[in-house]
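#structure-requests
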Amino acid sequence: MSFIRASTLVTSTILVGGALTFGCQPARYIETGGTESIVSVGQVDIQDVRKAASGMLQSMLATGVLEKSEHHPARLLIGSIVNDTSSQFDVGEVIYRMREDLVNSGQAQVDTTYGSTPEDKTAQDVAKRRAFTGQGSSDTGEPDFSLSGRITQMKASAGNMRQTTYTFRLTLTDLSTGREVWTKTVDMTKQGTKNAVGM
């Protein structure tokens, strides 16, 4: 074997070995939504969900609207949250993260038995049975507010550069008047030619 062919073989082996080393990363834990998370231009990430939920929650609490409700804690009904984007994800993630702080802090209670598609069917059945037998509470438990929303997107591009803006919108309606008493919009804009890690 000639020196040139041997050198080429060694170089190729090093390159392949290096590619395998850098291409195969072992799984590990990272901070959820932290700076090492994958950022994708074309879909909603956990970072977007967490930032949107935090921004919405802070805005709602700053208005003090829940403290003005007839009941304390305020009774909240979760309405329709529509995903009008091309990204497939559970829109409930945004609401659940807000609910966790609201409910656990004692500022709100969420009705999970309401409507034809209740969140907790078992609890709804129990409530109906107690109401029918007269064993239920005299408190009707009517909710004070309904929370609804929509998530939309706008796309733009210039050459290979892609940009997507995801807009999270939530509205709180006073069910005694039917009027909007709080609303908030949070935008998340991402730009790049490909997905990246830790950006």
